[in-house]
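Before the break, one more example. Copy the sequence into your notebook; we will annotate it together after we see the structure.
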Amino acid sequence: MESDSKKIKNKKNIDKKLVTIIIAFAIVIVISVVLLILVSRKQAALQGADQVIRLSAQGGFTCEYAEAQKLYIYSDGVLKVTTDRIAYLTSSGNEVFSTSVSYNNPRCMIKNERAVVIDVDGYGVTVLDNEKVIYSKPTSGKVKAAYLSDNGMCALVTDAQDAYGQIIIFDADGNQISQWTSYNSGYPISVGFNKDDSSFAVTTVNTSGAVYQPYVRVFNIGEVNGFTTTSDYAIYTIDEPDVFGNVMYLGESLFTFSANKVYMLNNEKLVALDKEFGAIVHVTLVGDKLFIVYADGVDQLNKLAVIDSSATLIYDSEVGSEVNAVAEADGLYALSIDKRIYVFNDSGSVISDISVDEDILRIGFIGNGKLAVVSTGGVHTIDY
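Here is what the structure looks like once it is written out:
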């Protein structure tokens, strides 16, 4: 009996030790998991951009903020656009060529190898490449906006006497091939060319009625008796008041955009996509995709959505607070937001994430895996 009692007592002691060991082991596991979580969070907090760059240490040239505002990334350098002069400079600041102008409010738009400079609410337009001025012309009406095609055509939106406005089309050599005056469709707002310049679309808004009436008008471009000319093809609208602020061809598909909606031409009707965009900030055509920066509401982070030509949403994610500039080239998209620069491929995948130490005004691709940036302190080139 005494032997059995000792055995029972020993067994109880062993059980207590096992329980103690198990509890201690469990405590160690819990502590390890907690530490692992804390370390992971700390590492995540420390993770930032792939690169952190001090712009003043990069190639380029420095300048004052007031001068930097006049610089546009173009080709392998920058265009300096002022009220009396347009100059093309290398990335180190050396002037290649220049031309004199007399513009009160110059604005520059760049597409592929061409740049167009207009005098907003003035009477002039200048188109150039990185070697020379191609043409510079006066206009009869005040210029409101300009748009370039992939192949060098230029569309001007101007006002017109006794009409809402007009669209003037120049071919790549600067010959005027069309002038459409809007008498009934309202104020012309934007123009978009298709890929091969066989057609272009114009958005207008008629404000004469009780509610705004938006339109998209499509024109064909062709040859008649050896001369390039345009012809009216179609007109589209929707059954609700809105304003189409932009229009683009994505392949053969036509898209137009209001402040918070994306419309696609489908079976000869403008149909709004199911996705809601609280406030559209930027729309950029990148290869065969649309890159849309938008915010769900006031004080909300901006998001980036990528849509393909069939109107399928293939990417949608938060990117940051304050958009500074965007750029596209060769199926790549660069977004400067806050003090970060993201470079995406045309599927919406981030291929580079760069942190900079200055505020960015403009960005642009300049080839060989490089971006040029105009910051508040100058012009610099960085690798991505």
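DSSP finds two helices and 33 strands in the chain. Residues 33-47 have pLDDT under 50 and may be disordered. Try to locate both features in your own notes.
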